[in-house]
């Protein structure tokens, strides 16, 4: 029943769509980047007088226009509207209520085209900015799904497997700052330094891992072996 309802709603939406002629002013005012979440953005752009979105890895998501400001996105299953907040005057992509077309939730704030999420900084290898962004997320919500220790660890090892040692070290360092009481993050950082050939830094971080967890066998073996060579 739910699938039938969705299909029926989509049919109604598409039947109500219009060929909208977007003015240059509207295009200039609404094009750009909107914050979808702490780690995702929506990019709005126009091509041949049609409005498209870039979102979740898709470069050209089609929209169904109702007027210059309102449109439907099947991938989101949402009706959206370009609006300005009455108090702050900031621009948003608002979510239009399913029950009241005049009711809009100011959902996605418009930001500068140069705005990046921490993940985007990470992808561009701007590690200091990525860390600052993740620390800001942690301050807001320390349990955020965007701060999973295992995810950073996995990314670091993917880079290690590609022999991108410095990049892997930078990612593991982010994990160290986010999870300073985890022996595993120091263990991984030590492993990266060891593969790079820096045994001194490997020892420093294995030693820290061992201090946090005396049962860390790999750290214990390395620390004991390193001391015998001094």
From TrEMBL:
Entry annotated with the keyword Transcription regulation: no
InterPro entries linked: TPR-like_helical_dom_sf (IPR011990), TPR_rpt (IPR019734)
Signal sequence, renumbered to the chain: 1-20
Superkingdom to which the source organism belongs: Bacteria
Keywords: Signal, TPR repeat
Chain positions of TPR repeats: 183-216
Name of the protein in question: Tetratricopeptide repeat protein
Lineage: Bacteria, Pseudomonadati, Bacteroidota, Flavobacteriia, Flavobacteriales
